[in-house]
Amino acid sequence: MTKPVNGTEQLTPGETATIENTLSTPMRISLVSGNDCQVDIELLPGQVVRFSSGKAHAKIAVQDGDPSGLLVVKPELPS
């Protein structure tokens, strides 16, 4: 589990993350793929979404809200 640094969390190719708003207020995040395709999502309190980076790097960024309330869980890759 991680809290995004400066409101941004990076994903490597093939990585999947579970993203949760732990606040009691909504927050707006962006999911940005390596080819700069961007999807903006409003996460309601307690809402959870899953995101996969696909074949490229990707980024999860807080656009509006307190970044400390965004919980990002990335499963450990087998070594």
Summed up, what is this model?
By secondary structure, this protein is an all-beta fold.
What is the N-to-C order of secondary-structure elements (H for helix, E for strand)? EEEEEEE
Major sheet description: 4 strands, antiparallel
Oligomer: single chain
- Based on secondary structure, the structural category is mainly beta
| Distance, first to last CA | 18 Å
**What characteristic shape results from the CA principal axes?**
globular
Explain the layout of strands and helices.
Elements: E1 8-11, E2 16-21, E3 27-33, E4 38-43, E5 48-52, E6 58-64, E7 70-73
Give a written overview of the molecule:
With about 80 residues, this protein is mostly beta strands. It has strands at about 10, 15-20, 25-35, 40-45, 50, 60-65, 70-75. The strands form two sheets. Strands 1-6-3-4 form a four-stranded antiparallel sheet, with no helix packed on it. Strand 3 and strand 4 (about 40-45) form a beta hairpin. It is globular and about 35 Å long. The two termini are about 20 Å apart. The model has no long low-confidence stretch (mean pLDDT about 90).
What keyword list fits this structure?
79 residues; 0% helix; globular; 7 strands; mainly beta; three-stranded antiparallel β-sheet
